């Protein structure tokens, strides 16, 4: 982080744009009104909250999926809070050696007020000052009469200078302290280190738990459009898939159509080899069908005229019960009823004399006469 803003304990009441805060930029530390200390350019910066405004506790959380952890978090933390848990923004910190997790709770309205003052350039990270203390065991940072204490990544608190003597007896070792130059070292410690600028030193430490998550996370311009970008890409991919599918289907149908057209042309050439040139297969085929239909009708009427003339010349009554004309063989099958066999024989002989071969399939005598099936073929060409 290039710029870090430290809110003082006075910020715990409410958000004030003119409240003096510490602005740390590398080794440069200065006190400015909050609204003036916010970086104007969109450079990365961090807002550090006073531990007095944050509740830190350790709870057991289910070792399952993150969404289940978020659902269980309010129930696990509510017994550590005086007010309703819905009023707090909750963040899960590091996992402790005993399996518990540290949790940070800060009032939503208070945090929203401070973030609302820097809408032109919201913080990239939100931390707690006491959570920036490094190392294991007990860590102590002495800044005037305000001393930050961190114990085993579980406890984060602030005490006055006079309270260390009593608290130190209950703190695990090693107890390591950091204090300003030209000030005496605190008592009851195993090791210590003088720092020139306590806040500048604290700003350089490894980041602790980031509270800028969920609705309090910084929304980058690109990320604001993230959901729309995803939707746009999804629609684009869907359209591409549909277009590709339709194109593939069209090509397949065209291929099948070409195959059918080629097969139809081969069949047509076998049926009508006399057609050397095919311009419009459908029209030419319809023309052949029309000609064939006309030929069949003419042959049928001609055969029927022959039978009718022969029957008319016979004096006896002959009834036609059924007709069946076969165009391919140019033959006419008729079922007749005559008074007797002699009549049928005379009709057969008359048709023979006219050049029409006739054959009798069957003949039966009935109460009203004789019934026979007769096949009359077309005359043979000479």
TrEMBL record:
Which UniProt keyword terms apply here? Cell inner membrane, Cell membrane, Membrane, Protein transport, Transmembrane, Transmembrane helix, Transport
Chief place of localization: membrane
User: Alphabetically, which GO biological process terms does the record hold?
Assistant: protein secretion by the type II secretion system
**How does the entry describe its membrane topology?**
Single-pass membrane protein
**NADP recorded as keyword:** no
Q: Which residue range or ranges hold the GspL periplasmic domain? A: 224-377
Taxonomically, which superkingdom?
Bacteria
What GO terms fall under cellular component here?
Answer: Gram-negative-bacterium-type cell wall; plasma membrane; type II protein secretion system complex
The question of whether Metal-binding is a record keyword is answered with: no
Q: A Pfam family name for this chain?
A: T2SSL
Q: Where in the cell is it found?
A: Cell inner membrane
User: NCBIfam families given for it?
Assistant: typeII_sec_gspL
Q: What does this protein do?
A: Inner membrane component of the type II secretion system required for the energy-dependent secretion of extracellular factors such as proteases and toxins from the periplasm.
What is the designated name of this protein?
A: Type II secretion system protein L
Q: What is the lineage of its organism?
A: Bacteria, Pseudomonadati, Pseudomonadota, Gammaproteobacteria, Pseudomonadales
